[in-house]
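2024-03-11 09:14:02 INFO worker-7 job=invfold-0412 stage=load source=structure_tokens
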């Protein structure tokens, strides 16, 4: 194994078996893995931002609250995997196999689903955007989000912004399904001062809103 020191916690694996492991909450951004098996492993609340997991086996893995942002998953297999509140944004799904995978409140943005296999567009609990949608929120909510994004930990996490640095409508859309506008405004204003640690996925903010 070679470790990429640019991101704490990420790794490089080449043709190895890391089955039935617990990777929960790990930041796997910019990891680079090839032809490795992670079957039965827990990837809940993991960031795969900018990572390469090509020709890897994720049989029976769980991906609750995981985020695949700009990830390369070419030729990987997700048979019998479970996805819940998972985001795929501008992901390479070339020849990715989703046979018998389970989905709940999963969002695909800017992904070519015609290149993957065993994923019908009529699968329940999947939302598909061909591109990042327009942001449609009140001025008060927009101001609260922009205020929250001045927090150094929120800014570093990149969970609320696009690659251009603007508010990410997909993430806000997901939050709007779970919380009222009043709850969102109150939460974003509060987290400006209260978020005081590193985090890597939107799931951390979900817990903040719930609390």
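2024-03-11 09:14:09 INFO worker-7 stage=emit residues=211
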């Amino acid at each position: 194994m070679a470790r990429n020191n640019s991101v704490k916690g990420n790794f490089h694996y080449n043709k190895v078996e890391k089955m039935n492991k617990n990777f929960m909450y790990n930041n796997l951004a910019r990891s680079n893995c090839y032809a490795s098996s992670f079957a039965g492993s827990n990837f809940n609340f993991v960031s795969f931002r900018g990572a390469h997991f090509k020709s890897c086996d994720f049989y029976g893995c769980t991906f609750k609250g995981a985020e695949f942002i700009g990830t390369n998953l070419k030729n990987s297999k997700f048979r019998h995997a479970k996805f819940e509140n998972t985001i795929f944004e501008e992901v390479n799904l070339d020849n990715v196999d989703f046979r018998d995978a389970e989905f709940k409140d999963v969002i695909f943005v800017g992904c070519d689903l015609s290149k993957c296999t065993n994923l019908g567009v009529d699968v329940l609990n999947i939302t598909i955007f061909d591109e990042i949608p327009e942001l449609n929120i009140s001025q008060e909510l927009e101001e609260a989000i922009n205020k929250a994004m001045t927090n150094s930990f929120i800014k570093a996490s990149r969970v609320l912004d696009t690659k251009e640095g603007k508010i990410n409508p997909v993430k806000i859309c997901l939050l709007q399904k779970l919380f009222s506008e009043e709850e969102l405004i109150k939460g974003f204003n509060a987290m400006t001062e209260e978020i005081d640690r590193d985090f890597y996925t939107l799931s951390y903010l979900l817990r903040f809103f719930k609390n």
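2024-03-11 09:14:09 INFO worker-7 stage=report msg="The chain has five helices and ten strands."
2024-03-11 09:14:10 INFO worker-7 job finished
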